[in-house]
Design the sequence.
C-alpha cells in the first residue's frame, strides 16, 4: 500500500468511537494521479502561451482545472467514525454527519457497487462520492474509495455505501444501531 501523507491510518480509539481508514484501490490511485496531472498541466500550458491581452474565457480556462482539483480534494474521504448514533465521514478539515436513526441493515458486500452508474457526483478523483445506481441496490449514495470493501447501510427511504478498511467489523458495529 502506498502511504499518502494526508490520509493517516486510523485505529480503534476509545470505547465511545471507532475510527476506520478509507483505503484507496488501484483504480482510484491511477485515476486520481492521471486526473491531477492533467488538471495541473492544462493551466501550466495555457500560462506558458498566454497572449498579451487574454480574454475572460482564457482566464477561466486557466483557473477552472485548478478549481476542480481543489474542490474534489476538499471532498475526499479520509475515513469513517461511529460516535453517538452518528456515522461521521471524515474529510480534509471537516466531517459529514449521517444519523443512524432508522438504520434497518448494515452488511459488508464486496460486490455492492458492481454495475453502478454515476447519476451525480465524483466518479474517481479522490473518491467515488455522490449519487449512484445499480440493479442490486437501486439508487444509493456513496462515500467510497475502494469498491471491494463496501458496507451497505439500508434505511427505510435511502441506501448508503461506505468503504472502510475493515468492512466486516464496521458492519458488525453498525448492526447495533438497527
Sequence:
Amino acid at each position: 500500500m502506498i502511504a499518502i501523507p494526508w490520509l493517516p491510518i486510523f485505529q480503534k480509539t476509545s470505547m465511545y468511537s471507532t475510527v476506520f481508514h478509507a483505503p484507496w484501490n488501484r483504480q482510484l490511485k491511477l485515476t486520481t494521479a492521471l486526473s491531477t496531472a492533467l488538471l495541473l498541466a492544462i493551466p501550466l500550458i495555457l500560462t506558458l502561451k498566454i497572449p498579451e491581452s487574454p480574454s475572460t474565457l482564457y482566464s477561466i480556462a486557466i483557473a477552472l482545472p485548478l478549481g476542480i482539483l481543489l474542490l474534489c480534494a476538499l471532498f475526499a474521504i479520509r475515513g469513517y467514525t461511529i460516535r453517538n448514533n452518528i456515522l461521521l465521514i471524515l474529510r480534509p478539515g471537516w466531517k459529514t454527519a449521517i444519523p443512524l436513526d432508522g438504520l434497518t441493515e448494515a452488511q459488508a458486500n464486496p460486490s455492492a457497487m458492481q454495475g453502478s452508474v454515476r447519476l451525480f457526483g465524483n466518479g474517481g478523483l479522490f473518491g467515488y462520492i455522490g449519487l449512484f445506481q445499480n440493479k442490486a441496490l437501486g439508487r444509493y449514495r456513496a462515500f467510497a474509495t475502494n469498491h471491494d470493501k463496501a458496507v451497505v447501510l439500508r434505511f427505510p427511504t435511502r441506501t448508503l455505501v461506505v468503504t472502510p478498511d475493515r468492512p466486516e467489523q464496521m458492519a458488525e458495529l453498525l448492526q447495533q444501531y438497527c
Observations:
- The chain has three helices and eleven strands.
- Residues 17-178 form one domain.
- The first strand starts at residue 12 and ends at 14.
- The chain has one domain: 17-178.
